[in-house]
Design goal:
The protein is α+β, with helices and mostly antiparallel strands and about 260 residues long. The chain is built from 12 helices and 6 strands.
Length: about 260
């Protein structure tokens, strides 16, 4: 089973585990199934190790951000390794959402219930049932509502005319976390013109809710950028068979454009 198939099977379960799903996502660029399995097993073991002896939220923060020196990679924020959990666990560097996954999963193992909070522009962690928010990109600092708002406005560019409140601090379920991680990688690989990586990212994205015509067209384009025009066209033609008339026309036209490279 390849990485995309494994990820698709995992996220199709009723309640996919965040740790295994995030590690399966990161297996996309693995050289082989053996390497992917090794990274997943090592990642799970490392999360177990990090949780050993932790018994409180303060202890968790101290373990991760003082003893183990996890940190936000502000110097190279768009390094794709920041979005791949095995690399985050090895390098102790990440972006808010992957550092949040580490924190949530280490907390779960230690009996500390935490949840991701997908505030626009900046991902936070919250102790379940409380208003205690952690900025894991800033060393696990505890921040209050005013600081949350300041980070929201600074990261999103929203002015005071945009209201801030609890509606922007709702829990983010596992599949939405995975979508956000994949969208980060999608943007990075597209901007760096890495179609092979963009391909597996888009195939995984299509296994999650909210994907549709744009992702299918972009996947076919990524195949075309690898000179796999027939593969891209065939994929689009298959999608067109189950699409609405308007979407089928766009898919069919895009397929013709790809096949035109063969003339």
């Amino acid at each position: 089973m390849d990485a995309v198939a494994r990820f698709t099977e995992l996220v199709g379960a009723p309640d996919p585990p965040l740790d295994r799903a995030a590690l399966a996502l990161a297996a996309g660029p693995a050289a082989s199934a053996v390497a992917a399995r090794r990274d997943i097993d090592k990642g799970l073991a490392e999360l177990d190790r990090l949780a050993s002896g932790v018994s409180s939220l303060d202890g968790l923060v101290h373990r991760l951000f003082v003893e183990e020196a996890f940190a936000g990679n502000g110097k190279d924020y768009y390094d794709p390794r920041n979005s791949l959990l095995p690399h985050v666990l090895r390098r102790r560097l990440g972006i808010p959402i992957t550092l949040a996954v580490v924190t949530i999963e280490v907390g779960r193992r230690a009996g500390i219930a935490l949840e991701g909070v997908g505030m626009p522009g900046h991902f936070l962690v919250r102790a379940v049932g409380t208003h205690v928010h952690l900025d894991v990109f800033a060393g696990g600092a505890v921040i209050g509502p005013a600081e949350c708002e300041a980070k929201f406005r600074a990261s999103s560019g929203a002015g005071l005319e945009v209201p801030f409140g609890p509606h922007l601090l709702t829990p983010t379920p596992t599949r939405a976390i995975l979508v956000r991680m994949l969208e980060n990688l999608r943007s990075i690989y597209r901007s760096r013109r890495r179609p092979r990586d963009l391909e597996w990212v888009l195939r995984m994205r299509l296994a999650l809710p909210g994907a549709g015509l744009p992702e299918r067209l972009e996947l076919a384009e990524a195949l075309g950028d690898q000179a796999r025009w027939v593969d891209g066209a065939t994929l689009l033609e298959r999608y067109a068979r189950g699409a609405s008339a308007a979407q089928a026309e766009k898919l069919t036209n895009a397929a013709r454009s790809l096949r035109a490279h063969l003339n």
